[in-house]
Amino acid sequence: MWAIILHGGAKTIRPGEELANRQGCLAALKCGAEVLRAGGSSIDAVEAAVLALENDPTFNAGYGSALNSDDEVETCAAVMEGGEWNVGAIAAAKGIRNPVRAARAMLFEEPILIAAGGARKFAEENGVELCSQNALAASGEEAESEERSHDTVGCIALDGAGQLATAVSTGGLEGSPAGRIGDSPQPGCGFYCDNEVGGVVFSGDGEEIARAMLAARVIHALDGTSPDGAVQAAIRVVEKIGGEAGAIALTPDGRFGWEHNSSHFAVAYEHSSMPHPLVHLCKQEEDEGHG
Ligand code: ASP
User: Which residue puts its alpha carbon closest to atom 4 of ligand 1?
Assistant: First the structure.
């Protein structure tokens, strides 16, 4: 049995953006699900899915990233596997075409997180494609037409061998200070993954998510609570300190959980026994049986 769930960010989706969000999530899910269906690993699946989201300007990750206060793009990304808790992450990185590729290249290396110029150097040394500093910025039209906040993307997959993996990628928050790093590349904050317990990935206000160690809270809660219950509790915590967030979770037996207190949170998921994948733009859609 295999399973995969991904999200396109805790944000507001305007009516004109609904189709792009649904289609973008489903297309990315397909990339990940194909890997799993063919017997591939959860690490390859989350990388493939997040790569597709990074290449879609609908989402603020990879191509389509926000600009910081210096009008520059700085990206963060992370990949984690749940067997031995290996982590690879980059932060405040400039000029890496697909940040998730750099994070994946670091997964089984000693460092777990490299920032700024060091991240770019690591990417170059490991054959990851580079690009010009602002090649990833949303085009003027895209930047103006969307409320560009909280669009971190993320994915969790469970493969046929029972291995869990998570991946996260973000263009950060519009107008944030140069060098600012949020929750997304920090294990226990924006993501975590343990084959025995489950995986979780967040999007939203990075400072609040990190201060509250939300991913760690979900992992601890998953030990005795349903995945929906575990992420709901975490969202209540971040709300208490004024934060907005969304989270997805996946357990080792293939159960999904997700919740958000942003107005929308595009989520798509599929497991090996489902007749077809599902996509929702908010939790209410799922509760009402749409999607
Ligand atoms: N969590 C991300 C950050 O704080 C932002 C996002 O979710 O889009 O960098």
Answer: 206
